[in-house]
Amino acid sequence: MKSVTKLLKFLKPYWKWAVLAPLLMALEVVMDLLQPRMVQRIIDDGIGQLDMAVVINAGLLMIGYALIGILGGIGGNVFTELTTQGFGADLRSELFRKTQTLSFGNLDDLETGQLITRLTNDVTQVREMVALMLRAMVRTPGMLIGSVIMAILTSPDLAVLLLVLTPVVMVVVAWVITKAFPMFGLVQEKLDSLNTVMQENLAGVRVVKAFVRTKYEEQRFGDTNDDLMNQSIRAARMMSVTRPAMMLAINLGVVAVIWFGGLQVTYGALKVGQLIAFINYLMRTLMSLMFVSMLTMRVARAKVSADRIQDVLESEPEVQNRQGALATFAPQGRVAFESVTFSYDGDGRDPVLRGLDFVAEPGQTVAILGATGSGKSSLINLIPRFYDVTGGQVTIDGVDVRDVDKAALRSNIGVALQESVLFSGTIRDNIRYGRPNAAEEEVIAAAKAAQAHDFITGFEEGYDTLVGQRGVNLSGGQKQRVAIARALLMQPTVLILDDSTSSVDVETEIKIQDALDKLMRDRTSFVIAQRISTVLTADQILVLDRGQIAAQGTHSELLGASPIYREIYESQLGNGGNGHVGA
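The chain above was modelled as a monomer; its predicted structure follows.
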């Protein structure tokens, strides 16, 4: 329960409401406990003595107690909702803020489906548990203890039955606690899997349709959905035993009280009103115990959710600012890789990059070529510290990037990643994403450099055109050009284009390159490309092979010295590629 306790700190801003809610519930409990006493008085002192005044007075008191109890209950529920809704909103916000601080490595471990579940379903489970606790923390123990005391005061002899029934009910509650915790943990894991399958399918719906895999995806979702259903049924089946067992104990108790109480009424040792009042208090006692079992089930499920939420909140970003990191950084753009080794697991046992050494001078364009899996994207991810090197160092102007504040470092680096991610909003908003206050002229200049201005102005709304979910109303090439414009608007010292023109036609790509040559004249550029035509004019070309630099130099140097580069060139621009681009 430690994780649940830690999350209660989010109640602090709402502590006044959190205190008022149980106090009002306590008022409702007191009023409820007085009701059976009034029934006893009406029967024994009013009806039994044929005294209508007692009946009327007691009846009016019952109505008054009920109205006060209703006000207390309504007030308690209102303040409970105010407290828990604020609690849930703050917890979701904190979780979202935490995910924004996590590094790429953390997000690789925490799958998207899992994070969605934790931000939604898990927070809801914890919020509902807190609401239940605020309602029950006073009501349940208050009703339980109060009913026991009132039952003893009403008939000490019959109260002995409580000593027999209570242990039976407590055994059932203990059994529920033992069984429920692990079962609901499995339910949440199955829900994670379902969300992951759904997220993958929605994100890749075009691939699914292109390869006619709808039936397969339906089957995959169906299997995962059935797993969740079956696990939920197993948990529900276990819980379904609880209520009947509790009701059996309650009914047996009532039968026993009626039997023994009836005998006492017959012999004159007990009045009818006392017997009815005692039965009421017995029912309240046992119902409170039953509610404890229900509460236990909710706590069991919420505890699992709280653990999962706490896992995210306690996650430490793999990439963190060092103590004394430079808060301001205005480099010229000299980027150096010095004996750089990198592995995604962080222990260096299976390195993706091995012993990289090269220097990119300010104003140079460095092109990176290599087969799929050679480490191209891994290399450029080390410059803005999306990941940290396992060995060696990456420096900008001689300063280790790990010695620079992440925000200060990345504000000098413009990135257009391999997958062009656009957000809901206008095209202008997407271009301005890195510089929200950029002037309109700067937005248009960046769009023109990225060869995006013409197609943007072709839309009826121009730059105010709304981008659909994930840029669905734009073509692949259009999305890439908007992403490039977004990177250029940052006016970066270092520009990284990770295969960001792969969906652009060759003519448009040449125009983009010409614009970049002018814009990035005094800045350093890194270009990952699949087309050899993209890198012909680069100041330096790195050919990667299995995480190592297999060749390095200009186009003319590599053409004569590197068989790998020559093979790539000839396959695209030589006889193998019919020379159509080279011409």
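Residues 331-412+525-583 form a domain with the Rossmann fold fold (CATH 3.40.50.300).
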